[in-house]
Write a structure and sequence with these properties.
Elements (H helix, E strand, L loop, with lengths): L20 H9 L20 H15 L15 E14 L2 E14 L4 E11 L4 E13 L11 E11 L2 E14 L5 E12 L2 E12 L1
Antiparallel strand pairs: 1-2, 1-8, 2-3, 3-4, 4-5, 5-6, 6-7, 7-8
Length: 211
């Protein structure tokens, strides 16, 4: 079964989320202490592994965790930017919570206040690789948003991830903020559903990326 992507993203107020952006990023910094290789040695984690994504995410969180959200009204009205980073998801499966990390790319067109992107290369905590990708579409920047109350941009995300003998047809929304006076980073939450052999289960997570 393919993923069904809604016609427009859902914009969340911050009160909808269980924790504010600062708390999420502070928690991610703790991952910097978990950079050992999967076998418990001190060697570097294999590229694209769950542990390598953790290290990358912790480094991004350490860089951007204390940086204030950019006021959307201060964003440029011309040009574009590409942000690269990590998306982390928890999928509800027949075996319980399934944590996965993947590589995120977001492309922002400031002239049209729009964004698109893709998340792919997902790997589970147990080392399972998931083929397929999640397309990010219908992204919109709200230049009137107050970052202390609501997120500065929103988008749809959909696609199918397959691995470990199962497939997950995903339909979700992501919301986020730009970070810093030069909008050098982006971060925010993800929520939606994932249809698998388990049935229709929840999906939630977060992302962080930088130019």
């Amino acid at each position: 079964m393919g993923a069904t992507v809604p016609s427009g993203p859902v914009r969340w107020r911050r009160a909808v989320m269980a924790a504010p952006r600062s708390a999420v990023l502070s928690a991610l910094v703790v991952l910097a202490g978990c950079s050992a290789a999967p076998d418990g040695s001190s060697g570097e984690a294999p590229p694209g592994s769950f542990a390598a994504y953790q290290v990358q995410k912790a480094a991004l969180a350490a860089r951007w965790g204390g940086v204030a959200a950019t006021l959307p009204s201060d964003l440029p009205h011309a040009g574009s930017a590409r942000y690269s980073g990590v998306m982390s998801l928890r999928l509800e499966s027949a075996g319980g919570d399934l944590p996965v990390h993947g590589a995120l790319t977001l492309d922002v067109a400031f002239a049209s206040s729009s964004l698109t992107g893709v998340a792919q290369g997902f790997v589970g905590q147990g080392g399972t690789s998931y083929s397929g990708s999640l397309s990010i579409s219908n992204g919109v920047i709200d230049r009137t948003a107050d970052p202390s109350v609501s997120y500065s941009f929103s988008a749809n995300m959909g696609g199918t991830l397959s691995g470990g003998g199962d497939s997950f047809a995903i339909s979700a929304d992501l919301n986020g903020d730009f970070l810093g006076p030069s909008h050098g980073g982006v971060t925010g939450p993800v929520a939606g559903s994932a249809v698998s052999s388990f049935g229709t289960g929840y999906l939630f997570g977060d992302f962080i990326a930088a130019r």
